[in-house]
User: What shape does this take?
Amino acid sequence: MKNKDIIPLINGIIKLAEIKGTKFQYCLIKNRKKLLEEHKTIIESLEKVPESFKDVEEKYIKERDDLLNKYCEKDKSGNIIKAANGQMTINKPDQFLKDEKKLKEKYPEYITELDKIDKKNEVLLNTDCNV
Assistant: This one.
């Protein structure tokens, strides 16, 4: 089992918690505890954006949110419509991608740092877990 498989497993155990049976419940609690401990260790091990990029990160996120607000499908109240899995429908995807590319070109050092962090975290998440 890989590190990235732990969260779905925890969610499955939570759903099973409704099933009756003392021994079964004990096993669930015991396994959930082990998985939560491992999950905490993984989260603490993930690379994070360095403090030196925090100001740039805030600006980038604000501008990216503005782009999403501009191009995403909205409800009657003007709120972005999100599917159950969190995905959004982009109107004019070609124009969105052009504007997103310009935004990334505006913050090249930050984007490079994010790519490095993502690669390191991907390796960690695809590593076999210790549970």
Remarks:
- The chain has a mean pLDDT of 92.
- Residues 51-125 form one domain.
- The radius of gyration is 20 Å.
- The helical segments are 6-16, 22-45, 54-71, 93-106, 108-125.
